[in-house]
Design a protein that fits this description.
homodimer, seven-stranded mixed sheet, five-stranded mixed β-barrel
Chain lengths: 453, 453
C-alpha cells in the first residue's frame, strides 16, 4: 500500500503547544504502554506500519516540518516537500510525481491520500487497504472513505451515496451544512467526508499533466512557486463522475481543538500537574518544568509551554485563535534538524536560550552581523569550529564568539549548551550560512579553558 | 504614634506567589495611581505614614525577611529581627525592648502592635491613633481593636464587650466558634478580634522582665534562642483584667487566601494576560514573561510564577497548602539583600539562574566546594573580585570560576548576569562566606575577554 500523509501547516488552535513553527501533529500527547508519549504523526505512522508492514509512507508537507518529521519518524520515511503552499491539488500532484519519479512506484499502483491527524482505531487502516484495492481495480477513478455520522455536525462535508452497502457509488457531495440540513442528509444515508481518498497513480498524473505544464517531479518542484493555487476538490473531485465511497463505522476523531484532543487523551495529566478531588473533566498538558495545580474546576483544559498558558472551558477552547494572534510573541521553543532550542530569558539587549543537539548532529556553519554569542556547555561532548578552527568541548567549557565570526558545533553525544546572545538587534533573520571546509585540527586541549575566538 | 508591625512567616497559601522565602506581604499586587504595584507591607506602611507622618514604624520579623523589607520600604524603617521563631510573646517583648533600648522611646509612651497584612481603608489608622491615645492614658493596660462582624465567621476569635459604645471594657474572649455560636455572640454585640492591640511600653517591659530573665534588648536578643515558646494571648491577655476594646466598622479584610486577596484587587489581570468575554469573576496574577489566556471561566484565580501555576476555583483556593507541600521543589526565585535571582534552567548536573544586582550592591564574598560557575554579563556595569583580584565588567564579559575560588560581584549600575552552575551536587548549602579585604587592582582591561580564574 502506498500512502501519502498530508501534514498540514502550523496552527494556533492548540496554542500554546502548537505555534508558528510547531504544528499540532508533532505534540507528544498519546501515552504508550511503555509510559512514553507519541505525537499524532508518530501514532498514525505506527498504526499504518502495524496494518501493513510493507506500506510505503510518504509525507507531503512544507520545508518547515522536515526536521520535526525526521526527528519523530526517523530518516527512513519519504517526504515530498512543498517549496511553498499552493493548495491541495498542486501538493497532491507533487506527491504523486514524487512517487513516480523518486520512489519509482508503478503508475498502475494505487495511492491512498490521508490527513495526518485523525485519531482512529486500527480497523480504520483495514478500510484504507480496501480503498487501495478498490482504486487498483480501476473501475472507479476515486475511492473515498465515508465516516458513519454520530451526530448532525456542521463542521464536516457530507457524501451522499447511491446505495446503503459497504461500498457505494457517490451520488453527490454537500458542503458543511446547517444542523437541520445535516439531519436530513443523515436520514438519507449521508456520510462524513474525512478527506481520505485513493486513486491509481496514472490517473492523477494524467490530470496533473493536463492542468500543469511540467516534465517530471524535479521540473514540477522547480516550477512549484509559479503554480496557481487550486484545491483538489475543485480541480478533481467536482469534475469526476466515477467516485466510490467506502463506509467506516469505527472510532474517528478530528483532533483540531483542545476539546476534541483531550477526549482522546488516556489520562488527565501530562507533565507535572495535580488535580484535587473536586475537579471533574479537567485535563492538564504541561510542557514546563514547574507544576500546575488545579482546584475545583470542571470541564477545563490547562496547557502550559514556554510560549504561554491556556486555561479554557473546553467548549470555549475552539475560539482561542484571535486571542492568540494578538499576542505577537517570539518563538519560544522549536525543534530543528539538529535538535531543539528553548528561550529561557529575554532582555532588551540579550536573549538566552538552551540548545540541545542530538548525537551526531550539528548546526549550520553560520555567523551573525549584529550579535555576539557565548556558549556554556552544560552536558555532553562534541566539538566547535570557529573560523575554521576545531576544538573539543565538554561540560563547563565556555566559547565566546564576536559578531561576524563563523561558528558551528558538532554533538558527539547529546550536547546541551546555554547560549547567551548579546546585541541591540537580535533577530532570527540575522544569520549568514557558510559551507564548512575541512581544516587543520586545533588539537585536543585537555584543560578546561575559556577561549576568545 | 509608635507602631510595631508583625510581619509573619512564609506561607504557601498564596502559592505560587508566596513560597518558603517570599511571604505574601511582599507580593506586589495592589495597583497605584501611577500604574505601578505595591505589596501589602508597602501599602500599610504608606497608609500609616499618611495617617501620621511622624509615626515611628518598627517591623518585627525574622532574619529571612530583612532583605525584602529594605528593598520594599527603604533602609529607614526600624526592624526588630527575631533570631528564630519563639511565638508571639517573646517577639513582642523583643520588639518592645528594641523600642526602649535602640530607639530610646519613653517607657510612658504607647505602642500599637498590628499585623502587617490587613487590607483596610484609611479610617482604620485613625482608630489606631485612638488606640494609642487610650493606651497612653493608662486607665486600662491593653486596648484592642474590635471589628464589627459582617457575618458569623468561624475563622476569627470574638471579643465580648461589656457595653455597646465606641469604646468599651472587655468582658470576655471567645476562640474561633461554630457558625451558630458566632451568631449568638454577634447578637450579644461581639466583635472580631483582629490581632491589633496597644499598651504602654512600661507595662509590657514589666511583664517581660517578670517572665524572662534579661537585662536589655541586646541581652534578650542574645538569649532569644533559649526562650520558651509562649503566645501573647496566654502570657498576657488571659491574665489581664483591664482591657478596653475600640470598635471599628469600616472595611477590614484578612488577605490570607487567593479568594480574599483577589477581592482586594482593583483589576482582573496583573501581568501578561487576556480574558475572553465569557469569563466572569476571573483573576490572573502572572509573574511570568509569557501570556496567560483564560476562556469561559467563572470565579477562578490563575496565578503563575517561576515556581508553578495555580488554577483554582476561588472557593477551593483556601485548600491548596497540602498539595503545594508535596511539590517539594527548589526555590525558583527570591529577593536578596543585593537584588534578586530567578532559576531559568535545571539539569542533572547544572543549574542556570538569572541574577539581578541592585546599583551599589554586591553579593557576599564566597566560594563553593562542589560546583564551578560561569557568569555572562547581559546588562549593566560593575566589577568582580576573584581570589582578591579586581576586574571591571560590562555587557558580554564572561567570568569562569572553578570550585573553591572565592568570588563576588559589585554592581555600579543595575547589573544582570546569567550564572551557569556546574557540578554533580548543586545545593544552596554549598556556600562558604569570607570577609573581603581591600587588595591591589587588576587594572582596567579594555578588551572583552574570557578569563579562567
Amino acid at each position: 500500500m502506498n500512502i501519502v500523509l498530508l501534514s498540514g501547516g502550523s496552527g494556533k488552535r492548540l496554542w500554546p503547544l502548537s505555534n508558528d513553527v510547531r504544528s499540532k501533529q508533532f505534540i507528544k500527547i498519546f501515552r504508550q504502554e511503555d509510559g512514553s508519549y507519541e505525537s499524532m504523526v508518530q501514532r498514525i505512522y505506527r498504526q499504518i506500519k502495524r496494518a501493513d508492514a510493507d506500506a510505503d509512507v510518504t509525507i507531503a508537507t512544507s520545508k518547515s516540518q522536515v526536521s520535526a518529521i525526521h526527528n519523530q519518524l526517523g530518516e527512513g520515511v519519504g517526504i515530498s516537500v512543498e517549496p511553498c503552499r499552493r493548495d491541495t491539488f498542486p501538493a497532491i500532484a507533487l506527491a504523486s510525481a514524487y512517487l513516480v519519479d523518486v520512489k519509482n512506484v508503478d503508475p498502475e499502483d494505487a495511492v491512498v491520500v490521508c490527513p495526518v491527524d485523525p485519531y482512529v482505531e486500527d480497523a480504520y487502516f483495514e478500510t484504507l487497504k480496501e480503498l487501495s484495492e478498490q482504486a487498483r481495480k480501476g473501475e472507479d477513478n476515486l475511492v473515498l472513505i465515508g465516516i458513519e455520522p454520530t451526530y448532525p455536525s456542521e463542521k464536516y462535508g457530507y457524501i451522499i451515496p447511491e446505495t446503503a452497502g459497504k461500498t457505494a457509488k457517490v451520488r453527490s457531495f454537500k458542503e458543511k451544512p446547517s444542523a437541520d440540513a445535516a439531519k436530513e442528509y443523515i436520514a438519507q444515508g449521508a456520510l462524513w467526508n474525512s478527506g481520505v481518498f485513493a486513486y491509481k497513480l496514472k490517473y492523477m498524473m494524467d490530470i496533473a499533466h493536463r492542468l500543469i505544464d511540467f516534465t517530471d517531479y524535479y521540473d514540477l518542484f522547480a516550477r512549484y512557486a509559479g503554480l496557481t493555487k487550486i484545491s483538489f476538490d475543485y480541480a478533481v473531485v467536482e469534475k469526476e463522475d466515477k467516485i466510490l465511497v467506502q463506509r467506516f463505522a469505527g472510532q474517528w476523531k478530528d483532533l483540531g481543538t483542545w476539546n476534541t484532543l483531550t477526549e482522546a487523551m488516556e489520562e488527565n495529566v501530562i507533565g507535572k500537574g495535580e488535580l484535587n478531588d473536586k475537579c471533574s473533566g479537567v485535563h492538564i498538558i504541561n510542557e514546563m518544568d514547574v507544576p500546575v495545580l488545579a482546584m475545583g474546576l470542571h470541564d477545563v483544559v490547562i496547557s502550559a509551554s514556554p510560549e504561554g498558558i491556556l486555561v479554557s472551558d473546553k467548549g470555549q477552547s475552539s475560539y482561542i485563535k484571535p486571542f492568540v494572534d494578538q499576542f505577537e510573541q517570539q518563538i519560544m521553543f522549536a525543534e530543528k534538524s539538529w535538535g531543539s532550542f528553548k528561550v529561557i530569558d529575554v532582555e532588551t539587549e540579550s536573549l538566552t536560550i538552551k540548545v540541545t543537539l542530538n548525537p551526531g548532529h550539528s548546526m549550520n556553519y553560520h555567523s551573525h552581523r549584529n550579535r555576539d554569542e557565548v556558549w556554556v556547555v552544560i552536558s555532553g561532548e562534541g566539538k566547535t569550529v570557529i573560523e575554521g578552527r576545531e576544538r573539543k568541548i565538554g561540560i563547563g567549557d565556555v566559547i565566546s564568539m564576536s559578531a561576524g565570526r563563523r561558528h558551528t558545533v558538532f554533538a558527539k553525544t547529546e550536547l546541551k549548551m546555554i547560549e547567551v546572545q548579546l546585541g541591540r538587534d537580535i533577530t532570527v533573520q540575522d544569520k549568514e550560512k557558510f559551507e564548512l571546509k575541512k581544516s587543520k585540527r586545533a588539537g585536543n586541549r585537555k584543560s578546561r579553558q575559556s577561549v576568545l575566538q
